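Escalation from tier 1.

The customer reports that the assembly of two entities below gives different structure tokens on two consecutive runs. Tier 1 could not reproduce it. I'm attaching the input and our single run for tier 2 to review.
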Amino acid sequence: MSHDEYQIHKAKILTPSFWVLLTLTVIGFALIGVRFIWGIGAVSNLSDGYPWGIWITYDVATGTAIACGGYAVAILIYIRNKMHYHPLIRSAVLTSLFGYGLAGFSVMVDVGRPWNAYNFFVPSQWQANSAMFEVALCVMAYTTVLAIEFLPAVLTRLQETNWSRARAFLEKYHGRFGLDTPVVLEKLEKLRQRAVWLQPKLDKVLIFVIVLGITLPTMHQSSLGSLLLIASTKLHPLWHTGFLPLLFLINCMFIGYSIAILESVISSFGFKRPFEIEQLSGLASITPYLTTIWLCVVVGDLIWRGQVGNALRFDFYSAFFLLEFGLVASGSLLLFSKKRRQSPRWLFITAVLIVLGGALYRFNVYLIGFNPGQGWRYFPSLAELLITVGIVAFEILGYQVLVKLFPVLPRLHGHEVVEKA
Amino acid sequence: MSTKSSRREFLKLAGLAGAGLVTAPAMALAGHPVAGANDEELGMLYDATKCVGCKACMSACKRVNGDYGSLAYEQAKFDPDKLWDAPQDLTGSTRTLIKLVKDTPKEWSYVKYSCMHCQKPSCVSVCPVSAMTKDKITGIVDYNKNTCIGCRYCQIACAFNIPKFQWEKAIPQIVKCDLCKNTNLKQKGISACAEVCPTGAIMFGKRKDLLAEAKKRLAEHPKQYVNHIYGEHELGGTNHLYLAALQFKKLGLPELKSEAPAEFSEKIQHTIYKGFIAPVALYSTLCFIAVRNMKKGSAHTDEQKKNSDGGDQ
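Tier 1 run:
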């Protein structure tokens, strides 16, 4: 559990993909500016019939599930006691931090009167009947928890730094911007000392924060399902069930493990590092069991409510249901083979299938299966989509940059040997 | 009995202590039991057979509530001179609306749309910051823009699609009928639409009187009406009641069960979160397991290290 399980990915930050992502981010954020000046109607196709569109469906309901890698891996490590997955946790926590932080950010873009959000902290305004209240508080709390969970990476970096870049910067701009080199350096040194002081103390209590980081998503991921319980007349009966909270909870877990696999495979590929096959196949052996439970609850619930006919009608709703079901089922079926679990290619393919299926489930519940009646229609506008793309781009951008600044990725033991030799 | 309840009290207290601040208000707010409909609440009876579609109610609503609900006049596409207020539907500037619904070329009916003021309103149940409230005495479902965060969950929740949002404004709000709570009702004791209605199609009063009147009309003129008081039982009862000659479904009033959706969702939410015991129990259990695993894990790695060190030497 020592901190030298991680390393900084030493590579150039300003890569071509950096510029592409930055452009998308800038476009997205410019459109967010438009939204705040001319209203939500100016950039979106949202309406009184479809008051929640792609922002809530993707950025919040689906995005936070995709950001559950940190949650899923933490359960595995600390609760199921598989400590050898530990090297995976930091990158998982970092993506979770981005996912949740930006979900919170896009909520602020989506809500009409964000300046009133302080009411969440005014006890007299609390409304415990509202699943939204629970989701909001838990998501805020969990984002804070994730930031604390990521703190060790920052602290380690601070302790090891000799401020070479800062020194270079100061020497270049000495005297300008009111920068006095010795004073600034003294302050930086104090910061370093504080990091040295804080790290061991944080290590002692970190486990309680981590467990909080397992409790909170368990609560709000199920509540994300509860949000649609009230829409009994609007949500299609294929998806409207009292089991929504349970289905959302299991759903976020199998998405979480699959995302942890995807993330590792993609960053190994992108950063040209060896694949962490052993750990990934271990993760991949868990997902089919979770998906099987999920699929059983879905089918059992449909039978119990007499909705199997609806599911097999092959109309619009049935098609989306079968697609969601088929993606999750095929992904997990493929994973039951041990041979496939050892192949990066198959790990990637199955994880994609399961993530797509799991995400489609959330789209079905929040958007596709939602029908307010009276001829309301919704398809996201280009600007609306670009805002979401911008936020996702910012997420990937941040991940790319931060793994190059802080020790996040698992240390490559093989390379060490080479260096020593 | 007493030991049981005291044990429950103890568990509640334990939950409270564990969860700290979050719990007390959550428990106080959670699960107030809902008995049958409260017929002392205020409401309106709209009799579609008496309505002549003059829309006096619509303009009175805008005139009276203009400042309060920022009810702007709406411009229609065919009206470049901005001469008419021509809303097509309830919107962010229209709280009530009269429509003419044709069944056959010879059979038609007017219908008035506005907030139904449910006995157990979904919008109140889902609002995370108590911006939607139901007055305990009058039963008016009211909206407070000063606490609203604009999440629009009320719109998702309302089976009648009543709360409307001002999509085109940088500082938007939710717009819905509040029975002239702060305007006409306060000054004159009656909602503006009911006050100006020239034919008596809108009757204002306590729910019990409205129900009695509706039943009387149904009994006296059974052939004139569909034998159903819309709102008597729909979603656990609404304070806005309807009589009509056409099927209510054709008038755009959905066929609904007599159980309020909020009963269903709150039951599940409360089963999970009752007294905050489950989350606290979950956290404590997980802490116990995690700390034990950590200790085991570190002992294990220490041993491994020793072994491997020994092997090296």
